[in-house]
Design goal:
Radius of gyration: 31 Å
Helix content: over 70%
Strand content: under 5%
Largest sheet: none
Order of helices and strands: HHHH
Shape: rod-shaped
Number of strands: 0
Number of helices: 4
Amino acid sequence: MVTLNNTASPAQQRATSKNPLASLLGDLTADASHLFRQEVALAKAEVGEKVSQAARHVAILFAGIFILCNGIIIAMAGLSYGIAQLFLLLGVGRLLANSMGFLFFGALIMASGIAASLYAKNKLMDGSLMPTRTVNQFK
């Protein structure tokens, strides 16, 4: 949530002068300057929110990639173990069942890693760092 200072504008703080036109022009420039500073502060806050959101999605993406790599390692270990046992035994036995367990578990881990990576990638692609609320105020 963005909070801005709710102080009085420079025009409200300025005492009235003897020349009303000069006072009005001074108030106009002071108010315009004050408004511009507030809009810049809002834009900074909004961009900060967008960057924070993108950083969260990048963290999820890296976590998904890490999980995917672990799944690949487990699947490769299971496949290697199964192939070695097939060549050693030339028959189906309990060792093949063990390797199939490694393969199933590795595939499950890879699927969850792929899902997390795709989720984070899609969120990053959908997001924009453009401060849309601030831009919409100027339209």
